[in-house]
Specification:
- This protein is mainly alpha-helical.
- It has 35 helices and 6 strands.
- Helix 26 runs antiparallel to helix 27.
Length: 629
């Protein structure tokens, strides 16, 4: 069944860019879809398949038309008039969707947000503020960002931790130190100002510490609760770690006279329930949302989908994707390719799930793109379906999408995984023949594939061939080869290779690589080699790594070993006083007081007379005297 689907997809993709006969079918709430039928044959098999041909999309639903208008034209009064005509009512879901689509264009996002809030008098939720802030922080001017934060604060909203960390990361990456400090100060002050009030505290305590019962409901009813969306959001934020209790509170709150949950609160409870231990309740809540006429907003979808993928809840992630693709707020191509990537990276990719995603992607009229081809190709090569993967490559080429290093790397990985190493190596020769020069990542995957099946010597031959092709090694590839050596217990070989690459090739390994090798060397009593790596780390401006040395020297080393280690710690004549303290303390813990005293006698005067050192030895002497009584 799955093989037939691969063939079908190949035929669809190969012919979709050649066919010139289209039949238009329009619908009020969906894109234009076109259909035809073919009777293809592969080998000796022949069958008819439903065939959907993608073409330019025409949208009639509100979110798409608004996005198109805002993207196509500069902001003006004329554009505002057109927007007025295109939509009578702006919902929370629509605003989130449009802002998400504009998140790479901060100015347009700001113009739309400003129009929605100022001209249309739309009251944004904290979720909408989070989306617009994540967009504005990428703009050239920070003025709009700070204006929006002030508005958010004035309306009583808070910045959630995820948004704070995302924005902080952008500031740090852009080396925007002043904004970093100001934003952190604002966030911390906001946390203090928006700290749980007494009523929220009592609700949170009552819900989390009690088993839900009529008595709990009675006690909640006696509290002076403000029945508003903001109150619900505050409580859900505090109890999100207990999804089932959060759900019971949400249900109770919605039953109170005069209050009805909104699309904002429904989206928040969906985020709370979107985890493995409350997945049944999650899907039940999704159905309830639909029955109330609410949609999951695109920001909520993205967060829940990523959570599903992170937790390997892939069937739920696919089901959620299908649901969203059937609605008005469709995930982007990037969302589709990310899901396909997650499916392909699972231990045993489920091709049925892959085909469900690609089928739904096609069904709404999306033309196949290289990223989607790569997603399918990656899954096929991962499970060893190489003939079918070749058909996907043919379809890619027919569609005008040339395979690149990403595509070929997937094939190399799959062949190595199947232990077809010679074929994997030949792929790189075929790449060059096609004019696609293998890059360092492709070479790394090939070499790693050899190492994973304990063919380290062949991996080194591939490495030598790579160097002949004038492709320079990097820290990732070095780590791959070293792990290959270590998996074969060839610690000496790993050490010599590392030193060679640092001294001759001027390569800078990762700090973690140095740490791994030092620990391995000390594990086989090779202190001299480990100290040499400590010297190399220092030369490449890495911070010192004293912990394993202190433990080793105090347990197995001589006084001379300890002195050599202390010398290697610093460019200065002597390391810091704290380094000496740690070494002495470790000697005492191992019961080696005489060695500690011998080391002390060889220390410089300022160390021997330092108060901390004197105190340490005085305490040790006192304890020793007590034990000898």
């Amino acid at each position: 069944m799955n093989r037939a689907k691969v063939i079908l997809f190949s035929i669809r993709c190969a012919n979709s860019f050649r066919s010139t006969q289209f039949r238009r079918v329009s619908s009020l709430y969906s894109q234009v879809t076109l259909s035809s039928h073919l009777s293809p044959s592969f080998s000796n098999q022949s069958s008819a398949f439903p065939y959907t041909l993608p073409r330019k999309l025409f949208f009639s639903s509100k979110p798409y038309s608004i996005v198109e208008l805002v993207l196509e034209k500069d902001w003006s009064e004329e554009l505002e008039r057109e927007l007025e005509k295109s939509s009578s009512v702006l919902t929370h879901e629509t605003v989130v969707y449009v802002l998400r689509k504009l998140d790479k264009d901060p100015q347009r996002a700001w113009d739309f947000f400003n129009w929605v809030t100022e001209k249309k008098k739309f009251r944004p939720s904290y979720a909408i503020y989070s989306v617009i802030l994540r967009s504005l922080v990428q703009g050239k001017s920070m003025k709009q960002f700070w204006v929006t934060i002030r508005k958010m604060k004035e309306q009583g909203f808070y910045i959630d931790k995820e948004t704070y960390l995302t924005i902080l990361g952008i500031f740090k990456k852009g080396k925007m130190a002043s904004e970093d400090v100001a934003f952190t100060h604002f966030y911390n002050r906001m946390l203090q100002e928006n700290a749980m009030d007494e009523v929220v505290k009592k609700v949170v305590e009552l819900v989390t510490l009690s088993v839900w019962s009529s008595e709990v409901e009675k006690e909640l009813g006696e509290l002076k609760i403000s029945f508003s969306d903001n109150f619900v959001l505050h409580v859900l934020k505090e109890i999100r770690g207990n999804p089932l209790k959060a759900l019971r509170f949400f249900q109770w709150f919605g039953e109170q006279p005069g209050y009805e949950h909104s699309t904002v609160t429904y989206n928040v409870i969906a985020r709370v329930l979107g985890r493995d231990d409350s997945i049944v309740e999650f899907w039940s809540m999704v159905e309830e949302m639909k029955s109330k006429g609410y949609e999951m907003d695109i920001d909520t979808y993205i967060k829940i989908s990523r959570q599903f993928q992170k937790n390997k809840m892939l069937e739920d992630a696919v089901k959620l994707y299908e649901m969203m693709m059937d609605g008005p707020y469709k995930p982007s191509v990037q969302d589709c390719t990310m899901l396909l990537q997650s499916l392909s990276l699972s231990r045993n990719p489920d091709l049925e799930l892959v085909f469900r995603v690609t089928k739904k992607y096609e069904a709404v009229g999306n033309p196949p793109c290289k990223a989607v081809y790569d997603g399918i190709h990656r899954s096929l090569t991962s499970v060893g379906w190489f003939d079918e993967a070749d058909k996907i490559l043919e379809s890619m080429r027919s569609a005008g999408c040339e395979p690149d290093n990403i595509t070929y790397s997937q094939l190399v990985y799959g062949l190595c995984k199947a232990r077809r190493l010679e074929e994997a190596t030949k792929v790189l020769d075929d790449m060059e023949a096609c004019g696609c020069v293998p890059d360092i990542k492709t070479w790394t995957i090939l070499i790693q594939g050899h190492c994973l099946v304990n063919e380290v010597d062949k991996a080194l031959l591939c490495f030598a061939k790579m160097l002949e092709k004038n492709c320079d090694a990097d820290a990732d590839l070095l780590e791959v080869l070293l792990n290959g050596f270590l998996n074969q217990k060839r610690i000496d070989g790993a050490y010599k290779f590392l030193v060679e690459m640092v001294n001759r090739a001027r390569l800078v390994p990762w700090q973690a690589t140095y740490k791994l090798m030092i620990n391995k060397l000390l594990g086989v009593r090779k202190l001299e080699e480990a100290l040499n790596l400590l010297h190399l780390m220092r030369k490449q401006n890495y911070p010192p790594f004293p912990e394993p040395f202190i433990k080793y020297v105090s347990k197995y080393g001589t006084v001379g070993d300890a002195a050599e280690f202390l010398k290697a710690l610093s460019w200065k004549k002597y390391p810091s006083q704290s380094a000496y303290v740690h070494v002495f303390e470790s000697f005492f813990q191992e019961g080696r007081e005489s060695e500690a005293k011998d080391l002390l006698y060889n220390c410089p005067h300022h160390i021997r007379k330092h108060p901390d050192i004197c105190k340490l030895f005085g305490s040790a002497t006192s304890e020793s005297a007590t034990e000898n009584r």
